[in-house]
Amino acid sequence: EITYEPRANKNGNDFFRYQVSDGVSTSRLATVSITIKTINDKPSVSLSGPADGATKVDINSAELSYSSSDVDGDQLSHTVFVGKDASNLLRAANAQDEITADSYALSNFSSLEAGTKYYWAVVVEDNGTGTLKDTSGTRSFYTKNVSPQWRTNLSFCSYRNQVTRLYLPDLLTEKATGSGHTLHFTIIGAAGAATISSDTLIWVRPYDNRASKSIDVLVEDTWTIEPLSSEATITIACDNSEPEGMRYIPAGRCAGITINEPFFMDTTEVTQKRFRDIMGFVPDGIGENDRGENKPVSTHWHDAVLYCNRKSETEGLQKVYAYDQMITYPGTPECSLLVNLSVDYTKNGYRLCKRTEWTYAYRSFVANDFFWGKDWSPYPATIQDTLEVSQYAWWGGSDTGPGVCLINKPDETCCAQEVGKLKPNNFGLYDMAGNVFEWMWDRKYPDYEGYMMHYALGGGFGWGGAKYMRANHLNSNWDLAIVGFRIVRAAEE
Question: Is pTM beyond 0.85 here?
Answer without folding.
Answer: no
